[in-house]
Amino acid sequence: MNSVSEKLTKCYESVRSRTGFTPKAALILGSGLGDYADGIRVEDTLDYHDIGGFPVSTVQGHKGRFIFGYVGEVPVVCMQGRIHYYEGYEMSDVVLPVRLMKMMGAETLFLTNAAGGIQLGMRAGDFMLIKGQIASFVPSPLRGPNIDELGVRFPDMSQIYDPGLQRIVKRAAVKLGIELREGVYLQLPGPQYESPQEIAMCRTLGADAVGMSTACEAVAARHMGMRVLGISCISNLACGISPVPLSHKEVQEVADRVAPQFKALVTEVIINMAKEQEEGGC
Ligand code: HPA
């Protein structure tokens, strides 16, 4: 067994020694959604620190936990606090929780994040349904020996974000009266925000929003055959588009301001996702 696979097995056994909860969907909570779990029926929580072998940094004491519970009748596992590449982790560690949530039983991965807006006409506080992504600026989480139990060596990435799930998000947004943009998310390594020249490059490449997470998680999820959907909260206009210098505080404030809408959208999507699956739709 290779070391990535060994670590994953160790983490899985550790999780299973503490909870038997079987989620249907996995949810990664981005900026602004940190307290999403306050509104769900929580069954169990598990601090990353308490999972044997889980990649938590001893230097910064990374805070984070899995929350197990129900959104409506849907069993979900939420990641409260994701692992970012810019913190210094190997990419295989960054996506370890995604793999772990699949092993727990989650078939669908719902990704959320805060991102800088590039698309013309975007405003801070907008939401963007992710239709596609560019992950080429960060190392692949699949680099190294392939873990055959998870997926194939050369997985197809022609449709990373599930079209059926995208339809559900669009319908949910209409129902809730939320204006929803659509576009391509581009992941950069960070942690520095981009220069105006880098944002010009991103735009030329076809990106509508830029961030420091998500795309690598989506790649790992598709490798395992999970259905993936993603929504960005446009917390700021990207550098060079925004007339003011970027600050993490501004990003956080906007994400917090639109959090109630974001939470309502996430809940509506999860409930409808389960309904359509029951009905054999999407
Ligand atoms: N750039 C990169 N990541 C981000 C941004 C941004 O402008 N806003 C929120 N996350």
- Look at the structure and name the CATH superfamily: Nucleoside phosphorylase domain
Roughly what percent helix?
A: 25-40%
Number of strands: 9
Question: What ligand molecules are bound, each kind once?
Answer: hypoxanthine
Q: Structural class from helices and strands?
A: alpha/beta
Descriptive notes:
The protein is globular. It has one domain: Nucleoside phosphorylase domain (Rossmann fold), CATH 3.40.50. It has eight helices and nine strands. The termini are far apart. The chain has 282 residues and is an alpha/beta fold. The model has no long low-confidence stretch (mean pLDDT 93). The chain is 32% helix and 24% strand. It has a five-stranded mixed β-barrel. Residues 114-116, 193-194, 210-212, 235-236, 238, 246, 251 line the site of hypoxanthine.
Salient structural properties:
single chain; 282 residues; alpha/beta; Rossmann fold; five-stranded mixed beta barrel; 32% helix; 24% strand; globular; binds hypoxanthine
Summarize the model shown.
The chain is an alpha/beta fold. It has helices spanning 3-16, 91-94, 96-104, 163-176, 196-205, 215-223, 248-257, 259-278, and strands at 25-29, 41-47, 65-71, 74-80, 108-117, 126-134, 180-187, 209-211, 227-237. The protein has a single domain (3-279), classed as 3-Layer(aba) Sandwich (Rossmann fold), CATH 3.40.50.
